[in-house]
Write a structure and sequence with these properties.
- By secondary structure, the chain is of the alpha/beta class.
- The protein folds into two domains: 164 residues, Rossmann fold, CATH 3.40.50.150; 49 residues, S-adenosyl-L-methionine-dependent methyltransferases.
- Helices cover 27% and strands 33% of the residues.
- A hairpin with a 2-residue loop joins strand 7 and strand 8.
- The chain starts with a helix and ends with a helix.
Length: 230
């Protein structure tokens, strides 16, 4: 999944001036998107938010294998708590927008858009379901390492007109014997690509393009900036 998404994200970031500001990533997770930003937008500094201690540990381990970790600052917070820089060269949020309630989402966009450098992109993606419907438990996904198998599955139930509650179950198996189990719950606000595009436009985006699950907004390019590029 991330191989294809990484290529599309790289394309969406085309034309970014790495010297125009800081690159911001909301909800970095394990750092797959962070790798794309570091590789694509050298030598821009990165400001990253990841609230989960577990995911942040994997993110920091991934970064420790790179030679350019001095470019990355990781804040242990959610998207709306991240102290935004004065000038943003680009911003992304992959697989995270549903963690924000609608009012939080719009507040984030309103705070972010005025800080964008001319022509800077903001890229989010949306995930199914687009409406608050029950999601039956899906078949386990997993990986085998040594003699143990690690599996995960999940299901969701509506708890509001645009809100789901996901229950995720993670199991560790030694053959057919379950030796560990962890269950976690979180709320997820459903949003369509068209709604996200409308909110970004209302927050001040000059253009917004929808590419399947990607929503790509860009700041306006001023006449002075155009003259500088000639």
């Amino acid at each position: 999944m991330w191989t294809e998404l990484a290529d599309r994200l790289t394309a969406a970031l085309s034309g970014v001036d790495p010297g125009s500001g800081t690159v911001v990533e909301f909800g970095a997770g394990t750092g797959l998107g962070t790798d794309v930003l570091l590789d694509t937008l050298y030598p821009a500094p990165l400001l990253v938010a990841e609230p989960s201690a577990h995911l942040r540990a994997v993110l920091l381990a991934r970064l420790s294998d790179r030679h350019d970790t001095d470019r990355v600052t990781v804040f242990p917070c959610g998207a709306t708590q991240l102290p935004l820089p004065e000038r943003v060269a680009a911003a992304i949020g992959m697989h995270m927008i549903g963690h924000l309630a609608p009012a939080e989402r719009r507040a984030l966009f309103s705070a972010l858009m005025p800080r964008l450098a001319p022509g800077a992109p903001v890229v989010f993606n949306v995930q199914p379901p687009g409406t608050a419907v029950e999601v039956p438990e899906f078949p386990p996904f997993g990986v085998t390492v040594g003699r143990l198998r690690y599996e995960g599955t999940g299901r969701a139930v509506p708890i509001g007109p645009d809100r789901l509650r996901w229950t995720m179950t993670y199991r560790t198996l030694d053959g057919d014997i379950e030796i560990a189990r962890a269950v976690t719950e979180y709320d997820w606000w459903t949003v369509s690509a068209s709604t996200l595009a409308a909110e970004l436009t209302q927050a001040g985006a000059a253009t917004v393009r929808i590419d399947d699950d990607l929503v790509i907004a860009r700041a306006a390019v001023t006449e002075a900036h155009r003259r500088e590029q000639i």
